[in-house]
Structures are given as C-alpha cells and as structure tokens.
Backbone:
C-alpha cells in the first residue's frame, strides 16, 4: 500500500488532471465512485484503480467487475487527497484509456453545437441535458475542456456516454471551422437553430421554441455566456427560436435555457404517445 505523498503515482494523478498530461499518457483520470460506475456501464474498463482499503471493503461488487482486467493500487486516504482535485475524495480514482471514449455516429440526426462555453459547470450540465434529450454528438468550438474534472463531475458522467468533437486550436479557428460545419449541415438539409432573447430587438424571423419541428435533423447552436453566439456563426442559422421570459431578466443562463430546447422533442413524443 502506498503511504507516501512523494510516490510517483501522486505526480502521475496530478499530471492527468491537465490536458497535456492526458495527451502524454493517452489516459483519462476519473475521480470518485460515481464516475467509475458510469464508465463501467459503457464497458469502458480502467487500466488502473487507485483506492483506499475502506473503499475496497465497501465496493466488493465493483472490484469483482474489474479484478481480472485492471491493476488495483491501494493507497491511504492522505495520499488520495494529495493526488486529486476533489476536496474530500470518496476513496477511489481510476485511470482509463482515452481510446475508450464514445465514438460519434456517421450521420447523427441531432447535434448540439456550443460556441466558446467557458464555465465548466455549464458545460457539464449541457452534456447531461443533451444526453437526456438523446442528442447524438456535441460540437465544441473552443471553450472549457470537456475532460476537466469539474466538467466530468457536473455532467454526472454524461461525458462518458455522449460523443463530442473539439473544433479548432484557438477561438478564431474554432469559429471558422464551426461556420464551415454548419454550412455543410445546411447543405445536407439540417435545420441550424439559433436562439434569440425575447427582449432583444431583431429583424430576424423568430418563433417560440415549441413552434419548431425538432424531429427534423437539427443542429442547435448555443453561445458563450458573456457574448452569446458569434455573429459569423449566427449568420449560418436557418431558424431562430426564443424562450419567453420576464423582461426583468435580460437573459437566461445558457445551461438553463438549453433544457426546454433540448427536451422539446421528448415532450412532443409523450404528447403523441410515441415511445
């Protein structure tokens, strides 16, 4: 059992919290029991599980699932706390190969395109809502790192189930590439849907979100928390919807506004009795 905070494993776990470390080791760090269990649901198997003896005693069922295929390393509680970003770890961390992340479908019908979402909590919640709404992929134009520990936690493991594509190496290139992808989507008969606040004066044709046929192949575009959707990206949209709310509020948080838009297709299914 590892008892020293100077052990090389501590440095490795700290390294895996960074994008550069994940790329160096081609591995993903998951902190906590919930993320480990979510990964195992997808048959995504860890190369190594780092746990306290107490955690092992309480999770014998999980250990049986991975015992013959993963290295188990025992550590003290203090070593685990020194290794992870979680303030109070629940006793386990796990390392997975990056190659096990979900692969995108060739022709997804419903795509969520995110323009420079900066807040990890927002991004994690958007992953969670998109998965609940049965969207098939998320396009990420710059913004927060989807494999950041805060994103993974706030997504409740949804990042491990929903394919995503990082677009571009910078804010400028990501916008340019997303514009290109949206134009291709329109050429392939997708509706590219932007959102506009009900309090904003615009000459665009805007309809309440429930008036749109969300069953059609769709790319829903949501923008940066501060500046919204970039003008070049907005110019690609074929349709605009609004989410009515009080004029006392200038705009809604992007993760909050996304929920009714993403789930409208599911609501219509229930109304029509479609399973």
Residues:
């Amino acid at each position: 059992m590892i008892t020293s905070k100077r052990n090389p494993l501590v440095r490795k776990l700290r390294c895996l919290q960074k994008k550069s470390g994940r790329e160096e080791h081609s591995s993903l760090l998951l902190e906590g029991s919930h993320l480990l269990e979510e990964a195992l649901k997808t048959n995504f198997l860890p190369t190594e599980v780092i746990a306290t003896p107490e955690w092992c005693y309480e999770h014998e069922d999980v250990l049986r699932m991975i015992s013959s295929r993963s290295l188990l390393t025992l550590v003290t509680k203090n070593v685990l706390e020194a290794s992870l970003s979680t303030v109070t770890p629940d006793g386990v961390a796990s390392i997975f190969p990056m190659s096990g992340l979900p692969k995108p479908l060739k022709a997804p019908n419903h795509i969520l395109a995110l323009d420079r979402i900066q807040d990890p909590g927002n991004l994690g919640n958007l992953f969670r809502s998109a998965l609940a709404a049965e969207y098939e992929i998320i396009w990420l134009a710059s913004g927060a790192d989807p494999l950041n520990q805060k994103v993974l936690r706030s997504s409740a493991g949804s990042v491990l189930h929903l394919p995503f594509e990082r677009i571009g190496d910078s804010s400028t290139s990501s916008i340019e590439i997303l514009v290109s992808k949206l134009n291709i989507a329109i050429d392939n008969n997708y509706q590219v849907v932007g959102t506009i606040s009900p309090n904003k004066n615009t000459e665009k044709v805007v309809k309440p979100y429930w008036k749109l046929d969300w069953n059609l192949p769709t790319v829903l575009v949501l923008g940066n928390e501060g500046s919204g959707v970039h003008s070049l990206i907005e110019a690609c949209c074929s349709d605009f919807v609004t989410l009515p709310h009080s004029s006392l509020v200038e705009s809604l948080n992007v993760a909050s506004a996304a929920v009714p838009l993403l789930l409208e297709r599911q609501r219509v299914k229930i109304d029509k009795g479609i399973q």
Notes: Residues 131 and 162 are 6 Å apart (CA to CA). The radius of gyration is 21 Å. DSSP finds eleven helices and eleven strands in the chain.
